[in-house]
Amino acid sequence: MNPVVLVHGFLDTWYTPWWKKLGRHAQDACLLPDMIRFVDKGSVPGLTVGSPEEYAELVRAEVEKAYDEHDSRVNVVGHSMGGLDARVYIEEMGGKELVDSLVTLGTPHQGTLTSWLASFTPGGRALRMSSDLIKRRPTSVVDDVEYVSVWSPGDTLVKPTKNARMRRDDKENVTNLKVGSLGHLELTKSRSVFSRYADRLCE
Fold it and tell me: CB under 8 Å to 202, separation ≥6 — which residues?
């Protein structure tokens, strides 16, 4: 069984209660506590506004620690912009060598119109549908990693909501999972959502 690295999103921290719930879901399902690591971008909600390129370095550090400790490839779960942080690491920084799967929850793979609300921050600019980072994503998918993109038509922070689906879903290693009408944060703490991708973490 592989260790798991959890990556929070824009404005969030891993200290918020929904991440504790996700960690408990993983432990209840199959994982020991020491097999779960969190990427720490900062302890103050609202201040984690850097770009995915910046935070990809933190993802790399946690994945490498998990890999070294368990001598095993790593599964990554990223919420919102955290999924893009992970994709930059996997697809542009050699992370595909250490990562077995990436599950994204409400990640704006194709950008989001709501990014204009935070256009004064590096993270907000990166989430624009016209940003260079977003434009690179469709052709950056790697073959050695299994991708699962969980999205919801009730997600009010990814607009249009279909932008949380990964393109190139004709590839065998890319799966898009639609989950009811849950909101953006509910995707992290919902046990029913976790059950849809738990098999990727418990194999």
Answer: 1, 29, 30, 31
